[in-house]
């Protein structure tokens, strides 16, 4: 696996310092090397619009706040830290799974939007995506906790990227189950926790509901629900469902992540395996083993 962390810091600086009329084409040029992130979108994706939808930094307001945020990302050595984390994480996954397909990856790290209320209050100033083979996308505001979790966030997404690489676990958008997504989040978090400890390794949105038994029971009811359109509600929670036009199902934000951690922890405890070793494990095996250990029926 080769790792290319795009050096977006100078590009973001140029964008923020440019006259307003020049910022959009500069932003589009910065995003173009990672356009493959959106290769499954219908038609010709508008990279700038997708950047905005994902909580990326604005180009028409809050310019001073963004410049300060960029300064703090640079001060935190964010790009080098992500590069090291992904390279080291990839080596661990490959060693634990000889012969696994480990794709070359391009990493896009961008500053988040200081004025997006949903991005800050619901997503806690951090979004990330490792679901598209060959690409990792990290978008964050420079909160101290997000900066502290930078490496863990990167290897969480790396775990997804390798799990669903061609020749590994198949992700069929129409047929994939909530259970597969929930387990994948639990495995990715478990890998991040193995690398960086329990405090930093948990995805932030999954921390609050981690011990919510009612939410866990509700997620179990949806494990066989199919289709990615269902995931905003069952995995991310009602607030995300409302945001993206899905039907809420009565879950707090991050409930699927918390449930995934509980299931995966039970599975790993029962089998003695590591999250790295469990990279390609079938989600049904994880769920069935975990529920037996937890003495939960569904």
TrEMBL record:
In which domain of life is the source organism classified? Bacteria
Matching entries from Pfam families are given as: DUF2268
* Residue stretches making up the DUF2268 domain: 101-287
| InterPro entries reported for this sequence | DUF2268
> What name is this protein filed under?
Uncharacterized protein YjaZ
